[in-house]
Design a protein that fits this description.
Blueprint lengths: L12 H30 L5 H12 L2 H11 L3 H26 L1 H20 L11 H22 L15 H29 L1 H8 L52 E6 L6 E4 H5 L3 E9 L10 E10 H7 L13 E6 L4 E5 H4 L6 E6 L2 E2 L9 E3 L13 E7 L22 E6 L9 E10 L5 E8 L5 E2 L1 E2 L9 E9 L2 E11 L21 E7 L1
Parallel strand pairs: 1-10
Antiparallel strand pairs: 1-2, 3-4, 4-7, 5-6, 5-10, 7-8, 7-9, 11-12, 12-16, 13-14, 13-17, 15-16, 17-18
Helix pairs in contact: 1-4, 1-6, 1-7, 2-4, 2-5, 4-5, 5-6, 6-7
């Protein structure tokens, strides 16, 4: 046997490519960790994933947004972020492989991604300074330096005397650099999360310390007969943790109520004002049951909910500022509400001031607003879809005209005016259920906010319409439950529901998608009676 020591084999082409791809992935992780730490200091919305995700939402076609909401519901933002991370990982792997042959070009490619993230961050509606570009830029510089160093270890001759062939590589240097980078990334990620948690502590404390004062004008007790006693029916009051959430915020804003301010200004505002949260608490508070509906709600969809809200009547605030509706000579016909996340929502001034219970809400079902639903203050207007009335995390109200300004969703081809359409839904039985023959209870909800529901009818297959039993009405701003005792016979059956509102308008059977002003049509479920 030869006394010469065997020399370690040099990495083959596949091994070298795999290690270069790993280098790209480690560089991407380092970029995200560094960026998250910097964003925690600047503001969470400036992070590259959030900024790019927000830009993607702004530029996504309406049909794709509707598809995402239909299929992923309130998880649509999580799916988007996971998609962004997956694409980033693929590009990182590719840049790592590229850098093995073109080291500087690979590193430059990483810097290009940083520039794209910076542009996305500074172009967001809520961006107010160049500081929003820092997380993406510093994260990209970190990643470029790390990728350059790791690829250098793959290209460098080994420092071990037994592996100094021309095509050798610095195993020890690569492993040490990779482990150190992974550990530093993990540490930076933990630090970023800790800083984010620290920055939101004041907001959390301000909510935890808030005790809602009793309203000056209480909502009447919910009538005993408002809830139908049928298994599978919706609860009349939707719990906060079950209330739908549809918005564009990838990071839920956490606003400190003690630092919150609301500015009211614009056309026809003779006395502009800036209000604090304490200013609102000192005002007369109203409590009302109001059903909210998202314009993205498909026929039979879940994006409708009913809650008891506490807040300040918005019409009173506007009147004190000297605002008059157009019917009384006011120059502004649009109220533009702005959120801390840059969202703009345009509401008709006439509707806000026509006597309905439009409010700046501070409480929901007896609690301070949850952060997901707009703490510390949100706006809502009964009878209008949320995209033209329900600004969350509100910070600014400007009076203007529809001719002068297009709000966020109007720029994306949604209608300026969007009164809620008369709708109804079957909650039970569920689609494709298999009830037994005999008496089957059919139940659901119907809504026509600010008009009220007068009648609900149910049809089996193509038979005659049968009048359902209406539950007691709470108010014409809330949904109304209904039930129908169906004498079911064996076989496949189609159940269809329609409602008639208090104006006498019968819910149309004409099918329409959500764009531009809400879906229409009858809700049907197919079941098999056994």
């Amino acid at each position: 046997m030869s006394d010469e020591k065997k020399k370690p084999r040099n990495p083959g082409r596949r091994t070298r490519l795999a290690l270069s791809a790993l280098s790209g992935l480690l560089a991407a992780l380092a970029a995200l960790a560094a960026a998250e730490s910097v964003a925690a200091v600047v503001r969470p919305q400036a992070g590259p994933v959030v900024a790019v995700g927000g830009a993607a939402i702004d530029r996504t076609p309406i049909a794709v947004k509707d598809w995402a909401i239909r299929h992923f519901g309130t998880d649509d933002k999580l799916v988007l972020q996971c998609g962004i991370l997956a694409v980033l990982a693929l590009f990182a792997l590719a840049l790592g492989v590229l850098a093995l042959r073109h080291r500087r070009i690979g590193a430059a490619g990483v810097l290009l991604f940083g520039v794209l993230g910076a542009v996305a961050a500074t172009s967001r509606p809520d961006s107010s300074s160049f500081a929003d570009a820092l997380p993406s830029i510093l994260g990209a510089v970190t990643a470029a330096l790390l990728l350059y160093a790791l690829i250098g270890r793959l290209l460098a001759p080994s420092r071990e005397p037994t592996t100094n062939e021309p095509d050798g590589w610095d195993r020890r240097g690569f492993v040490i650099t990779a482990i150190a980078a992974a550990a530093a990334s993990a540490g930076a990620g933990v630090l970023g999360r800790a800083l984010n948690g620290s920055s939101s502590q004041k907001a959390v404390a301000s909510r935890n310390n808030l005790k809602l004062p009793p309203p000056n004008s209480r909502a009447p007790a919910v009538p005993r007969g408002a809830q139908v006693r049928v298994a599978g029916a919706s609860t009349f009051i939707t719990p906060n943790n079950e209330f739908y959430r549809v918005d564009t915020a990838l990071v839920v804003p956490k606003v400190d109520a003690t630092a919150w301010r609301l500015r009211i200004h614009g056309d026809g505002v003779r006395r502009p004002v800036t209000l604090s949260f304490d200013d609102l608490l000192r005002r007369e508070l109203i409590e009302r049951d109001i059903t909210l509906t998202c314009v993205s709600n498909e026929i039979g969809g879940p994006y409708v909910g009913n809650a008891r809200w506490i807040g300040v009547r918005l019409a009173d605030l506007l009147a004190e500022c000297g605002v008059a509706p157009p019917s009384r000579g006011g120059p502004a016909d649009q109220l533009v509400a702005r959120s801390v996340d840059g969202m703009t929502i345009g509401s008709p001034v006439e509707d806000v001031m026509d006597g309905r219970d439009a409010m700046l809400a501070i409480g929901m079902n007896g609690q301070p607003l949850p952060f997901d639903h707009g703490f510390p203050v949100r706006m809502l207007v009964p009878g209008l879809y949320g995209y033209v009335s329900a600004c969350k995390w509100i910070k600014d109200i400007e009076l203007t005209t529809f001719d002068a300004y297009d709000s966020y969703w109007v720029k994306r081809d949604w209608a300026e005016a969007a009164p809620i359409k008369t709708q109804s839904r079957i909650d039970t039985p569920k689609p494709f259920a298999r009830p037994e023959a005999g008496t089957v209870m059919v139940a659901g909800v119907a809504w026509a906010q600010h008009r009220g529901i007068d009648r609900v009818e149910v049809r089996v297959d193509d038979g005659p319409w049968q009048e359902a039993t209406l539950a007691a009405e709470d108010s014409y701003d809330t949904w109304r439950q209904w039930s129908y005792a169906w004498q079911a016979t064996k076989g496949g059956r189609t159940l269809t529901v329609r409602a008639t509102d208090r104006t006498g308008e019968v819910q149309t059977d004409t099918r329409a998608r959500t764009v531009p002003d809400g879906a229409s049509g009858w809700h049907s479920v197919v079941v098999t009676v056994e």
